[in-house]
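Q: I'm writing up a methods section and want to include an example of the input and output format. Could you take the sequence below and give the corresponding predicted structure tokens, formatted cleanly so I can copy it straight into the document?
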Amino acid sequence: MANDYYGILGVRRDASPDEIKKAYRRLARELHPDVNPDPQTQERFKEITQAYEVLSDPEKRQMYDLGADPFARGAAAGAGGFGAGFPFSDIMDAFFGAGAGARGPRSRARRGRNATIRVDLDLAECAFGATRDLVVDTAVVCPTCSGEGTAPGTHPETCDVCGGRGEVSQVTRSFLGQVMTSRPCPACGGYGTIIRRPCPECDADGRVRTRRTIKVRIPAGVEDGTHIQLAGEGEIGPGGGPPGDLFLEIVQRPHAIFERQGDDLHCTVTIPMVSAALGATLSVETLDGPRELDIRPGTQSGQVIPLYGLGVRHLNDSGRGDLIIHVTVETPVKLDEEQETLLRQLAKLRGEETPPGRFAPGQQGFFSRLRDAFNGR
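A: Here is the clean output for your methods example:
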């Protein structure tokens, strides 16, 4: 066939209907006679219109792909003409956007904005939950006009210009014939009504700002950075529209003893060398109050002792994390003469007057590491 409709629209032969429609709209905006009135551009516009008429119709496109005449079945389309059923709305969409003819009046009521406030909590409040009274500066429905925006005893009046439609139409002549376009009414701003006497308290906004206190329940298990959504607790929208949402951003204050890792708590307990060697029972602090901690004989520095179920409660679930105790053994720095004598006697009894140096598995001395470096190991 003489015309390469795919090439005219600049699309592949396997292009989807959506890709074909987008290509046509783009070219229609560039080549429309109202934009480029020269004869050569008009001929080009006829070409892309005919190409789109064929490729947008599944039956005609199939006939064209098979090499047959897509207009053989009597589809009324002259050189650049529009056949029966041609989607003329696509041309309108190319210039005025989808749904250009079906806007209608706009509502004055719109949804309110969301708001976010920070809530500082102690570790215990995050672990077990808390109840807070929060003071919020927000917008509420105007008590004078109940959100309507008009002065007492009055109501919005139908716009005389658009007759309540919220838009006005204009007919112009073009290459395509008479084209009717619509735009928001300049008199009422597209609302279809006019407020002659605005409310003296809210100035036709339908809402006023105020400060209110709300009681919120913080669930157990929240942590730093957790966001809690309170639906409908945000500010009222313009025109008395529905409220937005209120989000609470949790900020967990640092704790003097515990470090939180997920739902587990970690802390360090320092014990004397003798207690580590002989064993002892200590009283340690937890979020649930003091608890006894058994130090077994021979406890080493760096050893961890778990206290199960004494951590943070799981968020939206049962159970709790653990409290992990990290043990540090304190070696005495200053010894008096008697203490030193006793320790030397202990060392003699244990045969540790000259303790042998030992390396843990995987560790090496300096000279061994140096030798391996030269040997390429």
